[in-house]
Write a structure and sequence with these properties.
Number of domains: 1
Largest sheet: none
Bound molecules: fe (ii) ion
Distance between the termini: 43 Å
Order of helices and strands: HHHH
Shape: elongated
Length: about 140
């Protein structure tokens, strides 16, 4: 499975859009590298993606705490589940050395989490834009 940035994914908050764009690109590279069935290369690509993804979730959580705390439970829940899938993906590569499982989990991130993540992020972006306008 592959994933490409689409303009429809943009939320209109430049920092978030830049991070999302980078995540989409790192996740796609990881998916491509998985096809070569090279455990070491897959591990490197996974590390790059997962570090960026975890840093992004933490960045957003800081923004949520600052500007969008109320009603953020669902968003935080999606982040928690995303961390869980990323953890399973890391275990598939580094503990089980199972690239077929890694491919399935990467596909799961693309089909489920990216959609859920971006739909929760739409709400966050709207609140951030409102906070900026109110300044
Ligand atoms: Fe998010
Ligand atoms: Fe996000």
């Amino acid at each position: 499975m592959r994933i490409f940035w689409q303009d429809s994914m943009a939320l209109g908050v430049p920092t978030l859009d830049a991070e999302h764009r980078q995540l989409v690109s790192l996740l796609d590279s990881f998916c491509v590298i998985l096809r070569y069935r090279n455990l070491e290369a897959a591990g490197r690509a996974f590390r790059e993606f997962s570090q960026a993804a975890l840093a992004h979730l933490a960045n957003e959580e800081q923004l949520i705490a600052q500007f969008a705390h109320d009603g953020a439970e669902r968003h935080l829940d999606v982040h928690g589940r995303t961390r869980e899938v990323i953890g399973r993906l890391g275990a598939a590569i580094f503990d089980h050395r199972d690239l077929a499982a890694a491919e399935r989990l990467a596909g799961e991130i693309i089909s489920t989490w990216i959609r859920a993540l971006l739909s929760e992020d739409v709400v966050l972006a709207a609140r951030l834009k409102r906070a900026v306008r109110a300044q």
